[in-house]
Amino acid sequence: MKNRIKVYRAMHDLTQEGLANELGVTRQTILAIEKGKYDPSLELAFKIARFFGVTIEEIFIYDSVPGLKPPE
Amino acid sequence: MKRNTFYLLAGVVALIEVGIFWLSVEIERPILIQVAFVLGVLLIYLARRKVEETIEDERTAVITQKAALRTLEVFWVVFFAVSLGSAVVAFSRPLGLRPHPPGPHEMIPPDALDLPVFGGFAIFQMALLCLMIFLYVGFRMYYARKYGEWDTDEEQD
Hints:
The complex is a heterodimer.
Chain A: E1 2-3, H1 5-11, H2 16-23, H3 27-34, H4 42-52, H5 56-59, E2 60-61
Antiparallel strand pairs in A: 1-2
Chain B: H1 3-26, H2 30-49, H3 58-91, H4 115-146
Helix pairs in contact in B: 1-2, 3-4
């Protein structure tokens, strides 16, 4: 799963440490999410989205399986 | 409490536990190290709750859960195999639980397990426990690496 946390952090002039403190997680967790090594829980994903005032879909991009079409 | 203070406290507690272990051996009082160990663990758990900085979150919880599950998966097979071997040794010789053979009551069957065998079993149990700890630490390091515990980037000092 890809994400645009780094972009939104830059827009809000926030460091990883600052965002981590706001969300109550460690800086390593923010770094791991940004690098795509850890997929956050739904709760944390909502927290991140609400913190930046956007929807989850604007921050997290799900890499769908090739050939699998989304429901219409 | 600062995070580094907590780690320092944990180290001091571990050193004290080692000291109490040897004291317990010297004065031949096993209850001393047993009580000290439980108190030490309780102290560390209480101290961890007083740490102001976030040292645990959902990612560290996932790492802990996965490492614990893998350790259990490997360890139960090893432990069961060892226990099967021990059971074969135990049941193949009288343990003193069977009726005594005819003769004086003080007479122990010559092929019964001696007390030092049980002492050896205690040490063997400790070795198994150490194996479990090593397995856990190994799996923990593997999953910590997988979930970016030691990754660095441009913001790193």
